[in-house]
Amino acid sequence: MSSQKGTFLVTGTNGGLGSAIVSRLVSAPDLRAYHGIFTVRNRDSAPALDAALGSSNATSSHEKVSLDLSRLVNVREVAAAINAKVQAGTIPPISAIILNAGYEEYDTQRWNEDGLDMTFVVNYLGHWLLTMLLLQSMDRETAKSPEDPHHNLNESYKEEKYRTMITTDDLEPIAKGTWSSTADDKTLWMSAYRRYGASKMCGVSMIHELQRRLDKDPLLHRISVLAVDPGAMNTGIGRHSPWVVRFLLFGFVAGWVGRLLVLLYPNGTWRTPGKSARDVLAAALDCGPPPLTERPKGIYLNGSELGEYNNEAKDPRKGRIIWEGSVRHAQLQRSETLLQDWE
């Protein structure tokens, strides 16, 4: 039987924010009592994660797991393996699932093996399915599920037809990538940025929709769903963008200027991975001070303060559309989730 206090699962740990979260989890004395499951696309090629583990002289219990969020069959395989370990008692129940992995395209558009838009399935659907499958392994007294919903609106949404993302009673256009497709875009990048925003909007909508379903579940009603906007920082998510964006905007502005700006404006646009990692873990662990409460639920945080977000993500009707579309496109079955109100 495991002697750890609980398990933290973090996705996307080979990136700037993900590796910063890992570094804090394995080095902070008060967090070493937790077992860590750190997922990356390929655990044998994860230099940022390895650096975070190596630089911290990590002595806590942890494991690196390969997880390809674009392949729903792999999401199911990974979830099944984790559930089996929790059931056998070799690792403790999950205290928090931190949905951090992200993917953004630039001048291309890709689809996964199921014909789903890659941005949608990596940023949202793969995470949603992972959460649904792992509910049976959650610590039902203390568990939380914070996620990174970072998304800023800009000129990409100037046209009226793009100001609303869910335009029908079906998630299909976003799931299949026909909404804001690259084929219809002459800017080379705006369509990809809009699809990224739509995938994040779907995740933010689950603050309310998933929390509503959990709250009325006799077994899972203590689980909290929170979202944290970590701000803009120097991470690898812009690796598909042109060099001007990668090196000037993210490398110089985010990497150097951001270090100064975060001191002046802690929850401003530009932040550091270290600061945002602290904010994410506070959402996952802390019960106060405000805006966190004794048992915070359904909260959207901008760093360490309450944040504002897309009105579309607050719409209960659209939340149900996203949920129903998620069940259909992930092909979720009754036997796969502990959640009673899952359809």
TrEMBL record:
One Pfam family this sequence matches: adh_short
Membrane spanning stretches: 243-265
Presence of the UniProt keyword Transmembrane helix in the record: yes
Superkingdom: Eukaryota
UniProt KW keywords: Membrane, Oxidoreductase, Transmembrane, Transmembrane helix
Family note: Belongs to the short-chain dehydrogenases/reductases (SDR) family.
Annotated protein name in UniProt: Short-chain dehydrogenase
Protein source organism: Apiospora saccharicola
